[in-house]
2-oxoisovalerate dehydrogenase subunit alpha (Littorina saxatilis), 443 residues
Amino acid sequence: MLNIARFAARATLVGASETIQRTTACYFHRSSIIQSSGSNPGRFEDKPEFPGSRSQYVSKLEFIEPESQEGIPVYRVLNREGNIIEESEDPKLPKEIVTKMYRDMTLLNTMDKVLYESQRQGRISFYMTNYGEEGTHMGSAAALDPSDLVYGQYREAGVLLWRGFSLDQFMNQCYGNAHDLGKGRQMPVHYGSKDLNFVTISSPLATQMPQAAGSAYAFKLQKKDNVVICYFGEGAASEGDAHAALNFAAVLDCPIIFFCRNNGYAISTPTKDQYRGDGIASRGPGYGISTIRVDGNDPFAVYNATKAARKTCLSQNRPVLIEAMTYRIGHHSTSDDSSAYRSVDEVSYWDRQDNPITRLRHFMVNQGWWDEEAEKEWMLDARKRVMKAFAEAEPRKRPSPEELFNDVYDELPPMLQQQMKEMKEHVMQHKEHYPLEQYEKMT
Ligand SMILES: Cc1ncc(C[n+]2csc(CCOP(=O)(O)OP(=O)(O)O)c2C)c(N)n1
Ligand SMILES: [Mg+2]
C-alpha cells in the first residue's frame, strides 16, 4: 500500500513538472515570436513578460515624478458668461429640460435656506446644504435613466429632487414625522426612495461605494440595461472602501459611474491636506478605469460627461470615473462653522464669480428663455412651495414609538417582542415624562 502511495505521489510530481515545463515553453514562445524586423532578422526583441503589467525595459534610472506630469484638464461646455465654448459640444437640450434644471437648482437652494434656518431655530436637529454643487446634481441626474440606481453620500439632494422626490417628502424626512418614508429612524438629510431608485443615505463615509459596485455587478449578471451611479466626496475617497469599490468594479467590469464631487473640503480638511496627487481623477487610470474631470459648475459639461459615461458602462460593461470640480459654499453641516478654517473672500469668490446657478441663468437669458420678470415670479413661487411643505410637515405627528422595533425582521422575534412590551409598560408608567401627544398612538 505504502509503495502504491509513493508511486502515486511521484506520478503527481512528474505530472506537475510537465505542466510547468509546458507553461514555461508557452511563455518563451510568446516572447520569442516577437522577432525584430530590420537589419537583424531572427534576433528576438527583449520585452518584459511579467504578468500584470504592460511595459518595456529601460536602461536609465528614472523615477516617475508626479509633479512633472501635466495636470488632468477640466472639461467645460459653458463659459462663466453662459456661452457655449465649442458648438460641437452643445448638448442642445430642449428649453423644457434646461428650465427644469434651473428651477430644480433654485428650488433646492430655497429649500436649503429654509431648512438650514429651521435647524438654527431648533426646529429640526441637523441639516446639510448643497450650495454651490447644484450643477453636479442636475447635470448628472438629467443624463441618467430614472431606472438607474443611485447611491448617494449625503450632499446630493438635487438628484432626488430631479427624480421627483417632493418637497413634502424632503420635509417629512427632515422632521422625522409619521409621513417620513424612513419612519423617523434616521438623521435629517438621510433620504431614500425605493420608488425613485435612490438607496437610503448612510452616514459612515464611503460605505455606499462597495455596495454600489456590488449592485452594478448584479446588474451585469442579470444583463440589465441599467447603470449604477455612486456619488462620493473627495474626502470619502481617502477611505479604504473607496479603493475596494474602484478595484472591484474595474476587475469585474461593472457598469458603474463613480461620481466624485470634489468640493475642496472634507469638513475642515482642505484638499491639500487630503491628498498629494492630482485630485481624484488621477487615480482612475491606476485602476484601469476610464476617467474624466469636468467643471462641476457647468451643468452641461456634467450632463455630457455623465451621458457618455453611461454609454460606456452599458456598451463596454466597464466602470467610469467622473471627477466634478466644484466648491462647497455652505458650511459642512449645521454642526460646523467654516469661518474657522477659510476666508469670507474665498467663499464669496465661488458664490459670486463661479456659481452654477448664475452660469445656467446667463445661458437661459442669452437664449431668450428667461428674464428678470420670470426670475422674480419663479423665486416667489419657489419660496411659497417650500414654505407650504414646511408648514405642513412641522406639526405632523411623529411615528409611533413601536416603529423602533419594526422592519428589521420580517416577523418580530420573541426577544424584540419582549423589549417592545417593556418599552410600552415603561412609557405608560411614566407618561408625564413623555410628550406622547406628539406621537402616533401605540397599539
Ligand atoms: C467613516 C467616517 N469617518 C468620518 C466621518 C465624519 N465625516 C462626516 S462627513 C466628513 C467629510 C467628508 O468629506 P467629503 O467626502 O469631501 O464630502 P463633502 O462633505 O465635502 O460633501 C467626515 C469626515 C464619517 N461620517 N464617517
Ligand atoms: Mg468634499
